[in-house]
Amino acid sequence: MKYLFILISFLLSVQLSLAAEKEYVLQSGDTGLSIAKDGKRLSLQTDDAHYLSLNAPYVVTLEVNAETLNGYYSSVKEEKGSLVCVAKLKSTHGTVFHVKDVFTPDAENHFRIDREVTIDKTGKGDDYFNSYFGLTLQRKTQINDFEFFVPGIWYRNNESLRRGSLASDYTDNYFYFREDRLPLPLVSAREKASGLAIDMIHLNANPETFYGENGVNRIVDERMQFGSLGFTETDSHSILFVFPGIEGETTYVGRLPEQKRKGFAYRSHPVKAGIKHVYSLTFGFNQTKDFPDLVETVWKQAWNKYTPAVHKVDVKDAYEASIEVLDAYLLNLNGAPGWPFSVYLPNGIARAYNYQMGFIGFQISNAYFLLRKGLETDNKEYVRKASEVVDFWVNNSQLESGIVRPWADAYVDRKATWRDYEAYMRVTGGGMEGMMGAWNTMRKHGIDKPEWLAYCKNFAGWLIRTQEKDGSFYLRYDWRTGKPTHDSKYTTTNIIRFLIELYSATQDKQYLDAALKAGEFSYDFIHHDYLYVGGVIDNPNVKDRESGQMAIYAFLALYDATGDAKWKEAAIQAARYTETFMFAYHVPMAANDTLTDFPKDVSIVGQTLIATGHSAIDNGLAFSSFQYYRLYLLTRDTHFLEMAKIIQNNTLSIMDLDGDMRYRYRGLLTECFNPQSNRGHSVRQQLPWNQASILEPMHRFMDAFGEWDIDVIEQWPMKKRQEMIERYARTQGLEKE
C-alpha cells in the first residue's frame, strides 16, 4: 500500500510537471489564468469554476463582414510578470489581423488584458470587423442559476422590468449592453449555489461617437470608440466584451422592423490600415455572501479604477440662482398661485400653469423654500407670495376624509379646477413634507400656523385608517372614493419620512406606529427582496433609481426614531443600490455635434439614470447629498463621503450659473437628457422639481449643521459633526408643536 501511494504521488507530480511545461500560469489570489505555450488554450480557474476562452478551443475571436474568424496565439511569452500573446488571423478575403494581448495580474482574483488590433494587410472585399474577448463556463447552466448586476439595467433577476426592457426576456440568448448607457462600464453575474461571481470591467473607457450614430442598421466608422459588455446564455454561461459596441438581442437603439421583435444594433470598425482598435479590461472572481454584497463589491472595484472627480460648484450661488427662479415664475391666477408645470429652454417661457403638490410638481416644497428665504432675509414679499401658495393647498385640496386632491389647473379667466389624477403616495408624501417644512420655518420665526399642521394631521389620519393590515399602502388612491386603483405596494416607503416628521413635531405615537408598520412591510418586501420599484410614477411600475432614494429616506427616518440597527442596514443597502444609477465616468458628447443641451466641456459624472427601461438621465440624485453625507458619518465609509461631494457639486453642472447656455435665468436647468442616442440632447424644459432638487438638500444641511457646503463642514472636528447630526436625528430639524 505504501509503495502504491508513492507511485501515485510520483505519477501526479510528473503530470503536474508536464502540465507546467505546456502552459504559462499567472496567479492572482486563488485564481489562475493559464495560457498554453503553443497558444491553443486560455483558461481561467478557481476552486468553484472553470472558464475557457469564448469559442474555445480558439483563444481569439473576431467578426469580419458578419462572419466569425477564430484563431490561436502564434506567440506566447513571459515578460516581467505578464504574458504577451500575439495572434495573426487571416480572413477568407486575405486580410491579416494582428492581435496583441497582454495579460497581467490585477486586484485579488482578477486579471487585466490590454488588447491592440492592427491590420497588417487588407484584403479586397473585407469592409468591417469587431473583436471579442470573453470567457465561457465549462459546465451546463441555465440563466436562472445566476443573479446579474448591470448598473442601471439589471438587478438580480428580470422581475419588475417592463416588456421590451434590456434583460427583461429570459428566452433571449444574447445580452449585450452598450457601455455608454452604463453608469460604470461593468457587468457581473453571481452563481446562486456557490456565491461565486464573475465580473468584467472596461478600463479607461472613453466611449466616443459622432452625431448621426443612430438606428439599428449596421454603422461602420472608426470614430466609434465605445464597447459593449454582457453575457450569452445558451447551454452554458459566458461573459464578454465586444468592440466597438454591438447591442442586442434587445436594444433601445432605433426601431426594428415591425415583423422583428428582437435584433441587434451592429456597430463595426472599417477594415483599413491604421485603425485605432485598442482596449483594456479587468476580469475575475469575487466570493459574495449575497446579491447586495456583489453590488457593493463590484461597483466599488470599478469606482476605484475610475476615481470620479468632484467638480466644485459655488453652492451658495446655486442657491441664490434657484431662489431667483422661484421668485420670477410664481404667479397667482384667480386665487390659484403657483409655478408653471414647465418652462421652455433656453427662452424661459412658461408653458402652462398647472400644479402638482409633490413629485415633479413640488408646489408646496418650493413654497416652503421661498418662504424660508423670505423669513431669513426679512423679504416680506417672498413671505406673502409663498404663504399664498401654502394657503391655496390647505384651503382647497383636502377632502373631509383627509385625502387630498394632488393636481390643479389654474386659469386666467376662471377659478382653478382639480384633475381626476389619483393621490399617489409619491406625490402626496412629497407635498406633506413640504407642508411640514413650511409650518416649521414659520414656527421657528415665531409665527404659528396650526391650520398648516392640521392639514398634515388630517392626511395622516386618513393614512392610518387606510393602512393595510400588513402595514402597506397602495401605489395610488382615487381621491373621490379613497379606494386604491393599483395593486402595487412598493411605494409604501414614500410616505414613511412624512409620518416620522409629523411624529417628531407632535410626539403623537400613532404616527410613529404607522411608520413602523409601513417600515416592517418595506423591510420584508423591498429591502429583503431587493425590489426598489415604482418610485418614478410617470414611468411603468418598474425598478428605478428614485425608489432607492425613497427607501434611503424612509429607513434613515426609522433609524432616527428608534435607533434599531436594522433600519440603518436597510438604508445602507438602498444607498448602495441607488448610487449604481449615477454616472461615475465620463461619456463625452458627440464629437461633431454643436447643438447639445448638455455642456460639451462638462463631465457627465453625477448625473443619473432615472429608471430601467430607457436611458434618460437627470440631476435627480441632487436630492440625496445630505443622506449620503449622513451615511458617511454613520459608517465612516469614505466612499459615502465621495458620493456626497459628487452629488452636491456635480449635479449642479447643468445649471446655467456661468451664463454660457444663455438661459433666461442662471438657475434654470433641463429636466432630462440622453447619454447615448443623440447624446446631450434634452427635453429642453425645466420642471418645478428641478429647483427643489437643488434647494431641498441645502435646507437639510442647514437644519443639521447651519452650513450647506460639505467641504466647510468637513473641516470641523468629527466629534462636533457627530453631535450636530445626532441632534438633527432626534428632531428631524423640526420644532415641537
Overall 3D shape: elongated
Low-confidence runs of at least 5 consecutive residues: 1-18
Class of secondary structure makeup: alpha+beta
* Rg (C-alpha, Å): 28 Å
Organism: Bacteroides oleiciplenus YIT 12058
GO biological process, one term: carbohydrate metabolic process
Signal peptide: 1-19
Protein name: Alpha-L-rhamnosidase six-hairpin glycosidase domain-containing protein
Q: Which helices and strands appear, and what pairs or packs with what?
A:
Elements lengths: L1 H21 E6 L2 E6 L5 E5 L2 E5 L6 E5 L2 E5 L3 E5 L2 E9 L5 E10 L4 E12 L6 E10 L8 E5 L3 E3 L17 E5 L7 E6 L4 E8 L15 E2 L7 E6 L3 E7 L23 E4 L7 E10 L3 H16 L8 H15 L1 E3 L2 E3 L3 E3 L5 E3 L1 E3 L6 H15 L2 H17 L10 E3 L7 E2 L4 E2 H20 L5 H17 L9 E2 L18 H11 L2 H19 L17 H18 L2 H15 L28 E2 L7 E2 L6 H11 L2 H13 L34 E2 L1 H18 L4 H4 L4 H14 L6
Helix pairs in contact: 3-14, 4-5, 4-6, 4-14, 6-7, 6-8, 8-9, 8-10, 9-10, 10-11, 12-13
Kindly describe this structure.
The protein is of the alpha+beta class. It has two domains: 23-306, Distorted Sandwich (Beta-galactosidase, Chain A, domain 5); 315-731, Glycosyltransferase, CATH 1.50.10.10. 33% of the residues lie in helices and 22% in strands. The chain contains 16 helices and 33 strands. Strands 1, 2, 3, 4, 5, 6, 11, 14, 17, 18, 19 and 20 form a twelve-stranded mixed sheet that branches. The chain has a nine-stranded antiparallel sheet with strand order 7-8-9-10-21-16-15-12-13, with helices on one face. A three-stranded antiparallel sheet has the order 25-24-33. β24 (342-344) and β25 (350-352) form a beta hairpin. The longest helix has 21 residues, at 2-22. The termini are far apart. Mean pLDDT is 95; it is low at 1-18. Residues 1-19 form the signal peptide. InterPro entries: 6-hairpin_glycosidase_sf (IPR008928), 6hp_glycosidase-like_sf (IPR012341), Glyco_hydro_76 (IPR005198).
